[in-house]
DNA sequence: CATAATTAATATGTACTACATATTTACAAA
DNA sequence: TTTGTAAATATGTAGTACATATTAATTATG
């Protein structure tokens, strides 16, 4: 006798791609196959629609997606050109803590910790006295202001500066996008404790310490977060 | 006398948002303001279009973007629901080494190195004998196969397994998406040398070494890449 | 002849209409 | 109670029309 278990495990959902989904993929393939490069002019909408056998409506729905990602730009009469997308644009649009899954939130929380811990090597490649001095100014500023109220702003300023010093704009932006997620997770846990190593301590390490010193300092600075992770994993 | 420099630096481009751009933003704001959560039903297309004062066409172009990102799903008659987007979907669609800028390529190359170096802490939180054993199998397998031909596949398998062991699906996928970029940059440089520390060495460290040992081992494993970075930065 | 002004041509942006299709709901039939 | 049928409805798709901005061509003008 046949055993009927969870149907959803045995029967895959019927994939109902719309024409816009298909056209989006086909356009991608077309650009690749023809090795279009940024700046190259694309055929006009009606030609593409005719070639694909769809209405101009459907084609524009697909184009709208590519335009959002920055893959294509259009000028009124000149037509469309392929362009260099902002690699983080699509990521940014989706990063709302209220709508992404709890698992993804947790993963992104960890991702930021991974970034902070991995930054040392690239950071030390770009280190110079001027930027260390600027970082120190930021850390010093924290003492003046009300610690509780400006705590989050201070965190953002200091760590953001670290990424800036690493000289990698994409990673800096990336980390900045992760901040709301990070804050959201912490808020859920009602946990705002600080590690033993302060921002000023980290500055001192940058002045005279090694990469390893910095990594260890950063770990201690982030220790409460890692402790939280450890507690969860068990 | 007025000095005329680079015009593009002095004159901002006129922002010519299309209706679809505006509607996309307005829908986002609407979802937030009404605190829609995944699963909630959205008004029907015609109602939204009427409310926004645009044609159903324009509204659908905006919706098409949100659908692509996985923010909304639609069923034929039931209407639309807000849903949990795949946080990396938008990123994945744009990661074509042939169209993203050279700067972004370089940044992403560094980003992968940062991830590898930062992985240790999260990895050690999840470590267990079983997964170490599986990793060892992968590393051992490399010796059997033709090293040159399978070199890239081996790299992907080993490092992919490391991310899997870290127990963070998002980061694992993220790293996997970065691989083509990584490979592309290396290919440009015609550089495929390995560090002194092999995959098997890393496995041994995982068995009996500390987090710091692992980080140092990973750094040595990736040393050629860091050397390349250092050469570029100067 | 060179520059400015005008006109024509064209591709995109937007709106509107129409209809097929899938899915729900309700109801009828077995 | 389950199954089958019919009506209702929201989305998916096609097609037409036109406004607008931009380019190209043409004419006017000094």
Task: Kindly describe this structure.
The structure is a homodimer of 234-residue chains. Chain A is mainly alpha-helical and 234 residues long. The first copy, chain A, has two domains: 10-82, Arc Repressor Mutant, subunit A (Orthogonal Bundle), CATH 1.10.10; 91-233, Four Helix Bundle (Hemerythrin (Met), subunit A), CATH 1.20.120. The first copy, chain A, is built from eleven helices and three strands, in the order ααβααββααααααα. Chain A has helices spanning 7-10, 19-33, 45-52, 56-69, 89-92, 102-125, 129-144, 147-165, 169-189, 199-208, 211-233; strands at 41-42, 72-75, 79-82. A three-stranded antiparallel beta sheet of chain A has the order 1-3-2. In chain A, β2 and β3 (79-82) form a beta hairpin. In chain A, α7 packs antiparallel against α10. The longest helix of chain A is centred in the middle third of the chain and has 24 residues, at 102-125. Chain A is elongated. The two termini of chain A are 41 Å apart. Mean pLDDT of chain A is 88; it is low at 1-14. At the A-B interface, α2, α4, α5, α6 and α9 of A face α2, α4, α5, α6 and α9 of B. The structure holds a DNA duplex (30 and 30 nucleotides).
């Amino acid at each position: 006798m046949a055993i009927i278990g969870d149907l959803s495990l045995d029967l895959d959902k019927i994939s109902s791609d719309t024409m816009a989904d298909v056209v989006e993929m086909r356009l991608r393939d077309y650009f690749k196959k023809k090795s279009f490069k940024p700046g190259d002019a694309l055929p006009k909408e009606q030609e593409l629609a005719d070639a694909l056998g769809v209405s101009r409506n459907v084609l524009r729905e697909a184009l709208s997606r590519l335009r959002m990602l920055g893959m294509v730009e259009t000028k009124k009469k000149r037509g469309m050109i392929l362009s260099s997308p902002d690699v983080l644009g699509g990521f940014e649009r989706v990063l709302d803590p209220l709508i992404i899954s709890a698992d993804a939130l947790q993963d992104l929380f960890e991702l930021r910790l991974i970034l902070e811990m991995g930054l040392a090597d690239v950071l030390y490649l770009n280190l110079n006295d001027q930027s260390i001095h600027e970082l120190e100014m930021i850390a010093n500023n924290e003492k003046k202001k009300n610690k509780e109220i400006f705590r989050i702003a201070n965190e953002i300023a200091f760590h953001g500066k670290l990424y800036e010093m690493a000289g990698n704009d994409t990673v800096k932006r990336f980390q900045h996008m992760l901040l709301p997620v990070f804050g959201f997770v912490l808020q859920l846990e009602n946990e705002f404790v600080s590690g033993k190593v302060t921002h000023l301590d980290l500055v001192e390490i940058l002045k005279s310490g090694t990469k390893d010193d910095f990594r260890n300092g950063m770990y201690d600075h982030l220790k409460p977060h890692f402790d939280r992770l450890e507690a969860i994993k068990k």
